[in-house]
Each structure stands twice: as structure tokens, then as C-alpha cells.
Amino acid sequence: MAKKLIVSLLPGATEMVAAMGGAAQLVGVSHECDWPEAVASLPRVTVTPIDGRQPSAEIHRAVQHAVAEGRSVIGIDAGMLRELQPDVIITQQLCDVCAVADGEAMRLARVMDPPPEVVVLSGSTLAGVWDDMRRVGVAIGLEAEAHAVARKLEADVAAIAARPMTDRPGVVAIEWLEPLFLAGHWVPEMIAAAGGRDLGAAPGSHSTIREWDEVMVLDPALVFVVLCGLDAARGHAELARVTDGRIRDWLDARRVVVLDGNAYTSRPGPRLVEGIRLMAEAISQSVPA
Fold first, then answer.
1. Residue 258 and residue 178 share a domain
2. The overall pTM is greater than 0.90
3. pLDDT in tens, 26-35
4. What's the rounded Cα separation, in Å, for the pair 126 and 196?
């Protein structure tokens, strides 16, 4: 049986495909796909008018402006997609800002000849992400491999969560700084598996804008800064832009750990487990011996 050709419109899906041994089947990826390194040479099928190098406040304003004008935050290069002629397109319906929404992919697929199968990922919890991985495996002809990878990831999370803990400190996870968003979806589960208690969000909940006063009264022992789509260096840079004295005093009074949100928390894929490991290390250092 010929291997199915894949276009992934979602970085997490690209990492799923690679983890189950399907990297050679990828013929196109999103402009944000950067892992594993082998995908760097693949054609980019998505475009965005948003300059991700801007400060977080400017990025947010640009996104809001695009949405208000009815413009896509991330779009598909239809000509490139037709040229690649994939058998399978992987997209998502979780966030219109982070990746191409499922509707546009569906519309383009319907007019292609032959029309590719569109796999829409929607997992908002860890179990949902692993189920999405299994669905991708079925669609691209790697069902057994996908099940094996998902089982391994589930076992890895369980092993981290089984570590003996003398205390489970209160934690908040900041997904964006200006405006302030607390991370939802699978992040509260990551924190729980790592040994903490997420004080600001519930598993599977949407990431939401919060006021600093709301977050301050939660009084967490540990603050994770895991900015969506930004690495740790950008996280530190954005954190340095917070100049309000009251907020700075509050942050200085507790442990703040900046992680690579782009790699380890924003992408629903296999590297969420590495994110849990990094959180567990930070939490263990915050708990008195």
C-alpha cells in the first residue's frame, strides 16, 4: 500500500506524525512547524499577517484588529496546497489564533481533485491529545505505531505523577502577559502530574483573560510563565517589560519559572511530556525538603 502524503497545518500534529515514524510522509507543514528539525526544509502551507517579533501587547492588538476586520489570523496558501496534492490534511478546531481553523481546510479540500481526507484535532485535555494522536495514526496508515507512542506517553506521565510528594504547592501558569491570560486546556493537568495544584484554571478549560488582582489573591507559591508560541528567551524578555510596581513586587515575592511555552505547553503533542518533566523539576525545587 502506498504511503499517504500528509500536509500538517498544526505544529503539534507535525510532531505527532514524526513521533509515530511518519515524517517522510509529510509534504507540507505550517509556517510555525519547527520540530523535528527535519521539517525545516518542507514547503510552508500557511501564512500570517501578524509579526511575531513584536511585543506581546502589539501581537494581541494586531490579532484583535484582524479579527474585527474579518481577516484570518492564519491562512492557507491554496495554490501550494493544490500543488502538493496531499492525501491527508491535519488541522484543528481548538484555537483560531494558534493555527488554521478547520473550516478553511474543509472548504479547500472539497474543491480539490481528488479531495484529501481532513483530520480535525480537538483535544483539550491530555487524554484528548493522546486520542487525537491515535486518530492521526489511523488516517495516515500508522495506527499501531500511533497507539504504541500514545501508550508510552501515557505511561511516562503516570510515572512522573507517581513520584512521592511531601507537599503540592499552589501554582498559576501565565500563557500571555499583556493582556494577562492564564493557561487552560491540558496545562492544569500537566501541573497536577508534575506535583502542583493549578489555582487559576481547570483541566480542559479555555485560556482566559484575567485581571492581575484576581491572580494576586490566589497567592501561588510558584508562577510558571509559559507564553503561547514564544520560547523561554522571549518569555524572559516579555516578563522584563512588566513595569507596574505592584505587579513586580508581587512577582518578586514568589518563585517565577519561565519555560519554553512554544515547545512544551502550547503545542498539543508528544513534547507535553517533556513540559511536565520540566515543571516537576521546578516544583520539586519549590517544596521544602
1. yes
2. yes
3. 999 999 999 9
4. 16
